[in-house]
Batch of 2 targets.
Target 1
Amino acid sequence: MTLTPSLAGLEVVIARSEPAMATTVEAFEARGARVTAAVTATHTPASDGGAALVAALERPPAGWLAVASAAAVASLSGLAADLRPWRVAVIGSSTADRAAAAGLRVELVARTTTGAGLVEMLEDRTVDRLVAPVVENEPSALAGAIVGSALAERSEIIAAYRSEPKDLSRFADRIADAHLVVAFAPSGVRRLAEVGRPRHLVAIGPTTAAPAIEWLGSPRVSVAERHDLAGVLEQVERWWAVGNDLGSAS
């Protein structure tokens, strides 16, 4: 007997930045969904070309690296610096997988996928030095959590990459008509709000959900219980199986 894919018939818009879009689309399509990939941003090197990050990583002693996203992992890849002595703490299993694939020594994965969650776990460790590569031209939740913590005086928050927003206006009709929009970052929610109003939105976690709830209202927003791609897929499957009362997409 042939089983029907769990997301067969679902029309979904994925709003995510470039580094992780391909694997996300592949995962949804493998479950039968019809996907529109709305890339919210691409990432480019920091304005100094990574010089400040290299200098920090080469200056002894090595300590902990706090890595929040796939873009932060990409900013570390290929640097002219030896990362082997650095212990790495990451937000989320997807980021952990990417960091490990890039050769980083991942020792800590935040239980809650927020900057505050990662900092809270690091505060329970012996941390003599912490380096956090973050986005240069947008607010960083990880940076904010570090600044407000006991780790602040031992930390170096360094602009490692820039986020270059993409125009989503060509996706306006799909955002409005699809059964569902899935968002992976607060910045993606803000880009969506500029061009269309979805029927329902699934957010990867509470940080992403907050601006979506403010914009759409809580009945139209669902939050993944596990804050990674697998958790998002589980939430979408539940919604599609039992919670979808919006009818068919146009």
Target 2
Amino acid sequence: MLGTLVACSPGPEGKGTPALPVNPTPTKPGEVVVLAGDGQESNQPEDGAYAVRTSITPVGGIAAGHDGSVYFGVKYGDSARVARVAPDGRLHLLDPHLKVHDDSSFRMYSTKMVVSKTDLWLFSSDNKGSLQKIPLHQSAAPRYMFGSTTDSHVVFINDKGHEFPANRQRELNKSWRASTFGLGPNNQPIVATESGDLYELIGENKLRPWNPVGYQAVLGRVRQRGGELTPLYPGAVISDETENVYIVGNSTILIPRNGPATSIGKGFPGADPSWSGGVALAKERLLLTRSVNYDGILLVLNGDDSERQISLGSGKECIEGGDRTSLNNGGLYGLTRRPDGTLITTACNHVFGFRPME
């Protein structure tokens, strides 16, 4: 499906004048284009500059807006910011108070970004959970839906509207590190915990169990390893155009818009595959990203239970030659898709757009 993707690198033109198109779109299978980054990691991103002519160091999380904008986490000094590549190709740094991480260690897998109809959602599972809601049109201020302070806790509420027992509340508030986030039907924010349990956001600092038809039965089955329940280690919550939802961990569970949940694919029994992102393709197929020993990996999960893994090569070199950029770095810290169908990921201190080989 996808081998080494190749594109031209930005040339030495003067500041503010891009060598590459300012809003490129790959048109051929296997083609890759640079959307942001000049390949240098020693400099900070410049607000307002053309994205292909400024330095970036992605630090986790990537999402595409309805207008074609691309949002991602970027290192900025000793902190991290949210950057936006606008449709005109310019890079803009969003509100400096937005937290991409709880500390300055820049853990690459801890942040998820998702765009709903009106908002950018920023979820971090570093040390504790936090969820921020950022209006896309900036008509309202960003706000925390939970995790605004280091000692804040989420209140978990059952289906009858009662709070969970205190000991269970404490247990759940300590288990954020392997959690992930996505959108369910009707753009409902969903958190998936390490075990695979699902919770829906019902208000500020409030989560309620989400139990789609058949989900708990399937979850119990795929977690059984040697007579014991093992974690699911979900790395992605993916919705397709028909609002089917995929919970992707060491097994993948499909939650259809109508009908009971089922498991698909062979999975990675007992392991933590460390998925960093994914998108739904046609016919219940998923394209997933992860990094193993600095190798970026794409895996195609098909609806007929077959899987196909494609390695993008060694992470020893990012740039091969003066005019060829290879996605062989262990980046791939997320995957998203623009409305025009361009798939987008990060690697080698770049943001890349590509179309897979059919």
